Amino acid sequence: YWVYLPAFGDREAALRSARQLNAAGVRDYYVVTAGDHENTISLGLFRERGNASRRQAQISALGFPARLEERTEVQR
Asked: pTM for the full model?
């Protein structure tokens, strides 16, 4: 499972949101820099849905529109 903030319009907007996350005490995130999810902020990959749901709820409680998506592994 993947918890993330949806793609922002541009890199500066993504970085601005990342700074807001940091100010709210969230330190474990990654701003995606290329590919299909460019300018998305990744908030974690989880094997168990319960852990992903807790992370989504934590970020949402801070006022961010966190999403949860099921991810499948194509290759090990």
From this structure: 0.90
